[in-house]
Amino acid sequence: MTADTTREAIRYTADVVLVAAGHVLLIERGWAPYEGCWALPGGHVDAGETSLTAAARELAEETGISVPLPDLRQVGAFDAPGRDPRGRYVSVAYTATLPAPVAPTAGDDATAARWWPLDALPPLAFDHADILTAATATGRPVR
After folding, report:
1. 121, 116, 119, 115: which is closest to 103 by C-alpha?
2. What is the pLDDT of residues 125-136, one digit of tens each?
3. Which CATH number does the domain housing residue 123 bear?
4. Rg of the Cα trace of the chain?
5. pLDDT per residue over 23-59, tens digit each?
6. CA pair distance 25, 102, nearest whole angstrom
C-alpha cells in the first residue's frame, strides 16, 4: 500500500470563548460560510503572529472588547477534517472570563455581537458548540 502524498492546504485560525456572569459573547457572521449564523469571535492568524495574539486581535476587531493576553487561556486545538466547509482549518481556541458583560460593538466581518446565556444558545456555526463545551467543561474555572 502506498501513502497518499496529496498535499492539503491548512489554514491557521484562533477563536475566543469570552464568558461573563453565565453568558458567552457571540458574533453574527456577515458572510459565507454560515452567513447570518452565530459564532465565537475569531479568525485567521496573520503572518508573524501567534494564535494568542490573533485571538486577542480578532476579539477586539469583531466585538470592540479587548482582553489582555495574559488573561486568555488556551482551551485546545480543533482540527477535525470537515470542521469548515471552505477546506482544512486548524483553530486554537482560548477562553477568558470578565467579571460582568461589557457592551460589544460589532465590527470587521461581524454584523452583530451580543452576550447569550450559556443555557439558551442559538445554533452555532462550524464546530463552535464543541469548542464552547470544551472551554466550559474542563473541570477548572474558565478564567
Report:
1. 115
2. 999 999 999 999
3. 3.90.79.10
4. 15
5. 999 999 999 999 999 999 999 999 999 999 999 999 9
6. 9
Round to whole Å and give the CA distance between 54 and 60. Answer: 10
Question: DSSP state, 44?
Answer: E
Cα–Cα dist 10/89, whole Å: 6
- Residue-range definition of the domain harbouring residue 86: 10-136
Residue at 143 is within a domain: no
49-56 long-range contacts, CB within 8 A, separation 24+: 51/12, 51/13, 51/14, 51/92, 51/94, 52/14, 52/92, 52/94, 54/13, 54/14, 55/14, 55/15, 55/16, 55/92, 55/93, 55/94, 56/16
Length of the chain counted residue by residue: 143
Please enumerate in sequence order all residues whose Cβ is within 8 A of that of 105, keeping only pairs 6 or more positions apart, or say none.
63, 64, 113
Cell of 42: 475569531
